[in-house]
Design goal:
The protein has a domain of 155 residues: Ribosomal Protein S5, domain 2 (2-Layer Sandwich). The chain has 5 helices and 9 strands. Strands 1-2-3-4-5 form a 5-stranded antiparallel β-sheet. Strand 3 and strand 4 form a beta hairpin. Helix 3 packs parallel to helix 4. 27% of the residues are buried.
Length: 231
């Protein structure tokens, strides 16, 4: 080994070890804005699926909201002040204006005491609860007395209104209400529990309801017919 190599190794062994110092971490000032991690939203932010421009949710009654009751759905039944209220159909109408669309609703409501009195109302408003309330008030004001024979009707009858035509026949005890849609709503609100029915023409809810009401108004018991003949 040469003298230069020995001198170099001796110099390396005498050098002190280097001390590694970490730089101090600077704290963020109190006024600094801390950004949230990706995939999250800051507090108070509004998501795309939240509220629309009008302040109502897209799935609510605002733009593109409530679409009314479709065909084949059972009427909504409510009881208040001893009367049975049934919402047969809710129709939505839209009007295209400069700023977008304006919606209005119309509700067909049947009200009865299940003891021979029934009424039909048709309310219109900008909101669904208001149109149901108007329809209920109109139905209560238009209630009529129906002549029944126990839990069924006294005789066969046919009712007509516009394009609707409904046939009603009395049935024995235990048969039940063989009807659907608006016809069933009117018969149950009136108090009929055993009856046979058939829609002969239009299946429009309004036409069927008013045709059923027309048929019920034509009913007469045997005693009423005798009094009419005597007079």
């Amino acid at each position: 080994m040469s003298e230069e190599t020995e001198n170099q190794s001796a110099t390396n062994s005498e050098m002190p070890e280097q001390i590694v110092r970490e730089a101090p971490v600077k704290e963020a000032p109190a006024s600094a804005v801390i950004m949230p991690p990706r995939g999250t939203q800051p507090h108070g932010a509004q998501s795309r699926g939240g509220q629309s421009r009008g302040g109502q949710s897209r799935g609510g009654q605002g733009q593109g909201g409530y679409r009314g009751r479709g065909r084949g759905q059972a009427p909504v039944e409510e009881e208040s002040s001893g009367l049975t209220e049934k919402v047969v159909h809710i129709n939505r109408c839209s009007k295209v204006v400069k700023g977008g669309r304006r919606f209005s609703f119309a509700a067909l409501v049947v009200v009865g005491d299940e003891s021979g009195k029934v009424g039909v109302g048709y309310g219109k408003a900008k909101e669904v609860p208001d149109c149901i309330r108007k329809g209920t008030e109109q139905a209560q004001a238009n209630m009529v007395d129906i002549s029944l024979k126990g839990d069924t009707i006294p005789h066969e009858v046919i009712g007509e209104h516009d394009g609707g035509r409904v046939l009603l026949r009395p049935a024995s005890e235990g048969t039940g209400v063989i009807a659907g849609g608006g016809v069933r709503a009117v018969l149950e609100a009136c108090g009929v529990k055993n009856v046979l029915s058939k829609s002969l023409r239009s299946n429009n809810p309004g036409a069927m309801v008013f045709a059923t009401l027309d048929a019920l108004r034509q009913l007469r018991t045997a005693e009423q017919i005798k009094e009419i003949r005597k007079a």
